[in-house]
Amino acid sequence: MPDEAFIHIVRVDIDPEHEAAFNAWYEQRHFPDLLACPGWLSAKRFVSIGEGPKYAAIYEVAGRWAFETPEFLKVKGFGPFESLVKNFMRIQLKPMSGSA
């Protein structure tokens, strides 16, 4: 199977007393750090209007190799919020053939 681009989705919860700091860190530090890594093409955050963890981040990644670069290994995870994140979920999706 070739190493092709895919969508990487992360969903998490965090206690309300840490939300403001977590959201600021995510937007101001985590996204720029990740997008500076080779193979991390785009990033966008969402808040749930239904079931499951409250926050979601959707990334476009050039291939599985992007998870193995020294740059990514330095910034992966939730930094100062690692022990505070709850209900972590991950899904990785590849395009179906013929999709535009």
From TrEMBL:
InterPro entries: Dimeric_a/b-barrel (IPR011008). SUPFAM superfamilies: Dimeric alpha+beta barrel. This is DUF4286 family protein.
